[in-house]
Every structure is written in C-alpha cells, then in structure tokens.
Design a protein that fits this description.
alpha+beta; Glutamine Phosphoribosylpyrophosphate, subunit 1, domain 1; Rossmann fold; 6-stranded antiparallel beta sheet; 17 strands
C-alpha cells in the first residue's frame, strides 16, 4: 500500500540527504498518492522515505513509524494480516502504540525479536528498518514475493526502493543494461531474483532479508517453501472443510481496511471463490471488475464473470480490451513495469487496473491457487518425461536447433535436459540458444544461459517427494514470485491500486504444503482436485468449467493495425542500432506473424523487450 525508499551510509550532508529522500519518494507517488514522509538519522548517515496509499489507520498511520525511543524507524509497503494478534501480545509486554496501523506493530516486534520478527509476519510486504541502536539497516521481502524491493551499492551509499525509478531519482544511480538478466528473460519470460535487467541493481528474492551493518552485508532466507507430510491421516472431506475454513478466514482478513475493497473476477474457480467469500463477509455490496474481449470471442470469459456477479449481486464493472489498446498503453506500461516480463499478461493487468484504480484502493484476487493446488495443465504432462530415459540427449539438443515448430522445440528441450529439474525449466523455454544468437547483435550475446539461476530453492527441492511437488516448487518459487506477482504488483500500483491475494495467506500456504499430491491432481489427473470440493457455492456454469487462464486475444499481434505497429517497432528500431539483427529479425517476424499461434508469444516477448529498451536506453 506504499512506495518506500532510503539511503544508508550516505556520503552527503543531512540537508542534502533529506532532499535526496524526497526526490526518491516523489518518484513513487503513483504507489502512494495520499501522503509522504521521511526521516533522517544523522548518526547513521541514513534515512528512509515513504509515499502512502492509506487503507488501514488512515488518520494516524503515516510513515516512517518510529519506536517509543525514536531510535528505530520503519517503512513498509504491503499489509500484515495478523497484526491485531501481534499487537495484543506486544501490549501485554508493555509496548505503547501511537496509532492502529499494521506497520507500527512491526517496529515493536523488531525491538523484541530483532530480525527473527520477520518469521511471525503473515502478509505481503517489502520493508526497511533503520536501527540506530545496532547501527544497521534491515531490508526484507515476504515469503511468497508479493511486493518488490530493489537495492544497489553506490559511491554515495547503499540505495534502495520499491522501484528502480526511486534508485534512479537518488542521483547516484545510472541505469545500464545487464545482459545476463536480459538473457534470462529471453529464456523463460521473466528475470529471476536477485538478478535484474540493470547492471549492479539487485532485487530481493522472496523470503529474503539483508542486514547492512558496520561491516559487510549479511543476506539470509527467513522463509522458504517446504513440503511436509501430514502426521495424521485424514479424509478428503476433512481436508476440504479445513481448506474452506482457512480460505474464508483469509478473505475476511484481506478485507480489513477503512476504505472499500473490490475484487477482480475472471470467471474461473479461484477468483470466483474469493469474490463469493468476500461478498458474504462484506458489510456493503462488493464492487467487481472483469475484462471482456469484444474482438475475440474465444478469449472472452464474460459469460462466467457475469454469472458470478449476478449470483453475488455485486456492482459489476466490465472493462473492454481491444487490440488498439496495445500501442496506446505500451510505452507507459513499460515505464511502470521497469523490467521485461511476459510470465503474466501485464497489458491486460494494466488496462483493468486503469479502470479499477480510480474507483477503489484495493482489490482481492485468486492469484497463487494454481501454484499451491496444481491448477496448470503442464503439471500433468508426463509423456515427454517417460521418454527421457530412452532419448539420446545430444541428439535431442541438436534436433532442437533445426526445428521451428514450438511443440517440437519444447519436446527436444525436455528430452535433452541434463536432469529432471532442468527438464521442468526447459518446458517453459521461449528462445533457444541458437535463436538468441541469431536474433541478438553479437555484442549483446551472453556466452551461456545459466539455468541454475532459474532453479527452485535447493531446500524447497530437497523437501519434495514426487514429480508434482517438484514442479510446484518451480512454479511457486520462480514463475509466481519473479514473474506473475512481479507483473501484478507493478501494473496495479501504477494506478495506486493494491492487489490482495487470500490464497497466499500464510495459513493457506501451510495447508497446501502438507496436502497430499493425490488431492491436488486427482482421479483422471484433474487439476485442483480438492478445490473442486468447494465450488458448489458457485453458479453451475462456473463450477463445471475446466481451467482456462487469462490470456491475450489470439489475433492481438497479427491483426492490423497492430501487425504493422509490431513490425515498425521492431524493424525500425533495429535497422542500424539497437538490440536485434534486422537481417535475422525480418524473416523471423514473417514466419511468426503468419497466423495466430504459439510463435506469436515469442514476438510478444521481443515487443516487450524492445519497448523496455526504448523506454530506458533509447532506440
């Protein structure tokens, strides 16, 4: 619900540091248009700043927030959902509170428990604590990765912020491309933390904290996904009852605000369940938002979202997306996205948030369910894996370099992978090494793609006991945290809109970690088997449908005038300078834009990358 920024071990005078912090905060006004605040600790040559989007404790919850003695200051972007329980415990210990915000709870919890306090927070957050007592700075990001936080070390000090633009506004950061990050994007469609597409700038990984003190910085993971086996055998009905209870409680906690909270409704199970529980718990009619695609009936799901809205009696708002919205939104979208990402349809997020943002300050959605309860079709795709022991890997890799059909590229990539984890990553491969080397200018090529950067956390992998858990570990710790949630946050906050995700409540995550795989992929390998036990409360037309993710209209890139726009954007920008070799790009576009299909996904990746490059580095 905020944008945060700060400097540690600054090389400037106190007055100059305050001016730097104000510039950094002003660059984040879209994340927090309601209020601004900063504080400076001269003895640390440090300070923090915040732009606030007021949802909880609107009148007295301004940031930065200090402890009773005034020697610890905190800024946070996000929301803590168990703050009332934590506050009651702290008050029993003798702590005094000035207001009623969730952020103030963390200051006092940190006083008592230090860095270990992070393990007690149930919520989404990126936060910074300046501690004059210990002469240190703490940066941390929630375990699921719902809120971003960037940092870099410069000659002028350590600089951090919710977005890259805050670092740039400090005046001590010059943006330069990081080709390893760009290579990772071209490989899988997102950049895995802690890497970014800007040289020297790091993004905290999900569940990571960093402490900067008098000496070197110390980074550690305070929370990670670990699968467990339930100690007590239980029936499917008992599991379903517990999941419903937990999810209803999570929705209630995520509605906690002094302003109305709306809902994004796609018409699928996840968002529809969240909206249903929200409508039942809310004290006023819920306002819901969904996209419609009048130019592409195949992508349009309005029949489902309308059924949900009608059943719940919500104030429903339909937002039309047309192909012409692509060139209209793209430049502004890229400035807010800051790094190329195609793991989620960011253009649709941006367009929907542009309507919802001026009407509500927060919405709830169904993100995270697919990664916890096995909602993606790829999770049941075993045919290629059964062939792996029989296929010569060098031959599979060689064949991948001579085929163009994307299904064959995927098959050869999976068959040629060195191990099962790499095969999972290869399933999502976009461009092969051959394709990248052919398209990119020689000076921009990276010698080798390091797939180890995209692997799930080692401890998360070690906790898995079957193929499904291994794949869910990849989905949750990489694609969700570094791609999907990254895109959702940037696109919603571009319009001063906070997205809250009850499926990523700590209680629901802990439940999913212990849930047997047989209740995720059930009989007939049906996705989200246990969740299907909860959908009887939905309209029959919604309860009976199969998974269909939000996606771009198939003809968005190939229909005129967008087809010409795409060709002009890519070819004109790369005629004599830029990212790509025009001689290789032109035939690639000709083949890929011949008709809608999976190859157009690759074109969209190039469009996003070129638009990002143009926005930050010129044509």
């Amino acid at each position: 619900m905020c944008g945060i920024a700060g400097v540690f071990k600054a090389r400037s005078e106190t007055a100059d540091l305050a001016a730097v912090l104000q510039r950094m905060a002003d660059s984040l006004i879209h994340r927090g248009p309601d209020a601004s605040g900063l504080c400076v600790f001269p003895e640390l040559a440090a300070g923090v700043a915040c732009r606030r989007l007021s949802l909880v404790d609107v009148s007295t919850g301004g940031q930065p927030i200090l402890n009773e003695d005034g020697d610890i200051a905190l800024v946070m972007n996000g929301a803590i959902y168990n703050y009332r329980e934590l506050r009651a415990r702290l008050e029993r210990r003798g702590h005094r509170f000035r207001g009623a915000s969730d952020t103030e709870v963390i200051v006092h919890l940190y006083e008592d428990d230090g860095v270990d306090c992070l393990e007690e927070l149930n919520g989404m957050f990126a936060l910074a604590v300046l501690d004059a007592r210990a002469r240190r700075l703490l940066l941390a990001r929630d375990g699921a990765g719902m809120k971003p936080l960037y940092w870099t070390e410069t000659p002028a000090g350590i600089v951090f912020g919710s977005e890259v633009k805050a670092l740039e506004a400090s005046g001590s950061v010059d943006l330069e491309p990081d080709w390893s990050g760009i290579d990772a994007f071209l490989t899988v469609g997102y950049v895995p933390a802690p890497h970014t597409c800007f040289r020297g700038i790091r993004r905290l990984a999900a569940g990571e904290c960093i402490v900067f003190g008098e000496g070197a910085c110390e980074a550690r993971t305070f929370w990670r996904l670990r699968f467990e086996t339930s100690a007590v055998p239980r029936s499917e009905e008992e599991y379903a009852e517990e999941l419903e209870r937990l999810l209803r409680a999570a929705v209630r906690s995520h509605l906690d605000a002094e302003v109305p909270v709306g809902a994004f409704v796609s018409g699928g199970w996840d968002s529809s369940l969240v909206a249903t529980y929200a409508a039942q718990a809310a004290s006023a009619p819920l306002k819901t938002y969904s996209l419609v695609f009048p130019e592409d009936p195949a992508a349009d799901e309005s029949v489902y979202s309308r059924a949900v809205a009608k059943a719940l009696g919500t104030e429903h708002v339909e937002v039309e997306f047309r192909n012409a919205d692509l060139p209209r939104h793209l430049p502004s979208l890229m400035r807010h996205l800051e790094e190329p990402c195609t793991a989620t349809p960011v253009l649709l997020d941006y367009h929907l948030s542009a309507t919802a943002g001026p009407q509500v300050k927060a919405v709830i959605g169904g993100e995270g369910s697919d990664e916890l309860f096995a909602g993606y079709p790829w999770l049941r795709s075993d045919a290629y894996y059964r062939m792996r022991p029989l296929a010569p890997r060098p031959l599979a890799r060689a064949l991948r370099d001579v085929v163009f059909d994307r299904r064959l590229v995927r098959a050869c990539s999976v068959l040629g992978a060195d191990d099962e984890v790499e095969a999972d990553i290869e399933w999502f491969r976009a461009f092969t090494e051959r394709e990248k080397n052919a398209l990119l200018r020689p000076e921009w090529r990276v010698a080798n793609t390091d797939l180890d950067r995209i692997r799930p956390d080692a401890e998360a992998l070690a906790s898995t006991s079957d193929r499904l858990q291994r794949r869910l570990a990849l989905d949750f710790t990489r694609r969700l945290a570094d791609g999907i949630l990254f895109g959702h946050d940037k696109m919603c906050m571009a319009h001063s809109l906070e997205l809250r995700m009850p499926f990523l409540d700590r209680s629901v995550i802990d439940f999913a970690r212990r849930l047997p795989s047989s209740l995720k992929l059930g009989r007939g390998r049906r996705e989200k088997h246990l969740l299907s036990r909860l959908v009887d409360c939905l309209p029959p037309i919604v309860a009976g449908r199969r998974k269909s993710g939000l996606r771009y209209p198939e003809r968005m890139l190939v229909a005129e005038p967008n087809r010409t726009y795409v060709r002009d954007l890519l070819l004109d920008s790369n005629g004599c300078s830029g990212l790509f070799r025009a001689s290789a790009l032109a035939p690639f576009l000709r083949r890929s834009l011949a008709a809608p299909g999976e190859a157009t996904r690759l074109v969209w990746m190039l469009v996003v990358l070129q638009s990002w490059w143009t926005e930050f580095f010129g044509a």
